[in-house]
Amino acid sequence: MKKIYLLILKSFIKPFFVTFCIVMFVLLMLFLFKYIDDLIGKGFEWYVILKLIGYQCAVQISMAMPLSMLLSSIMTFGNLGESYELVAIKAAGVSLRKAMTPLFILVGFFSLSSFLFSDYILPIVNLKMGSLLYDVRNKKADFLIKPGIFNNTIPGYSIRAKGKNENGTILYDLMIYDNQGGNAGNTVLIAKEGFIYNSPDNSYMILKLKDGIRYEDARVKSSKSYDPRQQFTRFKFKETEQKFDMEWNKMQRTDENLFKSHHAMLNLKQLKVYTDSNKMKLDSVKHLLSNTMDHRFNLYSPYFNNKQGDEKFKPAKIKPFNDLLQDVIPVEQRAQITGNALSQLNYMKDDLNNKLPDYKDLNGKDIRYRIEFHRKFTLAVSCLLLFAIGAPLGAIIRKGGLGLPVIMAIIFFLIYHIISTVAEKSAKDGAISPILGMWMAIIVLSPLAGFLTYKSTTDSALFDIDQYKIKAEAGLNWIKSKIGKKKAKAQ
């Protein structure tokens, strides 16, 4: 038995790590393609990109782990079936369930690890990833001059160059508008040539200008009385330097505490605290709305608040409003009471409209907290479920390699992913409960896992096309024989 266990474990571990790396690479490429516009042309340091990729790899484990578990289990038992090793194991008197025992223990360890990862590590990674991605997306692009086009990247300046050298360090026929102070075009600088370089501490970008003229509107900068003779000033220069503060180009890191209350950044204990706190606020809003509606309803007609004798008038049953007017309200008071009722209804409508945004916001938070709470468990259970589907499926199809197993894995994973995505979206919209939305895919596919396990233990030819061809031919022959007998009787 030890040799059989070692054989199955070795057959599983290698495909698992290979498929995990492949799936992680594909998911990482999808992430980079999605945010490629936010990463290119901003001059990030190499370690910033490396951090972003590392955080994203950790985030994608929730999708890569179940898919690689499914694919590797299909490949493992497909290879064993194709090489008749499963037949040899069964011939030795070892059932498939008993041979899979070490794999169940290993997959259970992976599932437990994924649960601990999603509860303790993933919230921290989401926090780091979210804050870094926010800063990366908000960082402005590097200063880049295109010939003949004004560049407004540097705040307060508009720069145009008619040409530049191949390296982009020398600009020709420059025109610079200084728009600082909100006065557009009051200072204009023209030069035949400019050389760009950074200061030693990279705090400033310096533009060394040659053979140019500087025009200034003296009326704006001078606080003295207006002098027509000094309406504009002009300075000629052979060489000068224009400094631009590069503070705008530095990536400002946002305080991570601003993101800590997001549902994806919380572990189970924190989710429980935030859920209880949010539930109290939601109940408070509901109670306030209920009291407001009761108060408005009781005041909607002064007539019903008048006491008749010792008892307050209460209608025995609900009647249409027109019948109520005719039965109990005098003619001279009907117009006044109708007007009061309509005004109270408008007040009730305004109260609902004022409180409804708060209610929707709190209710949405409650749903998201509960969804995230169940997500911690569904990741671990999904690994067990997809292994329970993949292992018997591989034993049934008996095909190894990256051909048919990959196709089958993609089909079943897409079914799982589509069901879970649609159910989660319905839960977020409030159509179904969060617990049902998060566990829907597992509930739907669990019977399939049991069915495939039963078929694999009974040596079923579920995906054997030749068997279906034989059965189809037998059915056609039976139909032909029946038709032939009927024709013979008719003759």
Offer a few descriptive terms:
491 residues; alpha+beta; five-stranded antiparallel β-sheet; two-stranded antiparallel sheet; extended
Topology:
Layout: H1 2-34, H2 36-39, H3 46-59, H4 61-82, H5 85-91, H6 96-99, H7 101-138, E1 157-164, E2 170-178, E3 187-198, E4 204-217, H8 218-221, E5 232-245, H9 268-298, H10 302-305, E6 307-308, E7 311-312, H11 321-328, H12 331-397, H13 404-429, H14 434-457, H15 465-490
Antiparallel strand pairs: 1-2, 2-3, 3-4, 4-5, 6-7
Any overview of this molecule?
This protein has helices spanning 2-34, 36-39, 46-59, 61-82, 85-91, 96-99, 101-138, 218-221, 268-298, 302-305, 321-328, 331-397, 404-429, 434-457, 465-490; strands spanning 157-164, 170-178, 187-198, 204-217, 232-245, 307-308, 311-312. With 491 residues, the chain is α+β, with helices and mostly antiparallel strands. The chain has a 5-stranded antiparallel β-sheet. A two-stranded antiparallel sheet has the order 6-7. Helix 4 packs parallel to helix 12. The longest helix has 67 residues, at 331-397.
How is this structure best summarized?
The protein has 491 residues and is an alpha+beta fold.
* Structural class category: alpha+beta
The largest sheet is: 5 strands, antiparallel
Query: N-to-C SSE series?
Result: HHHHHHHEEEEHEHHEEHHHHH
Could you tell me the number of beta strands? 7
> Distance N terminus to C terminus?
67 Å
Oligomer: single chain
Task: Count every helix, treating DSSP H or I runs of 4 or more residues as helices.
Answer: 15
Strand content: 5-15%
Question: What share of residues is helical?
Answer: 55-70%
Note poorly predicted spans: 300-318
Radius of gyration from the CA trace? 37 Å
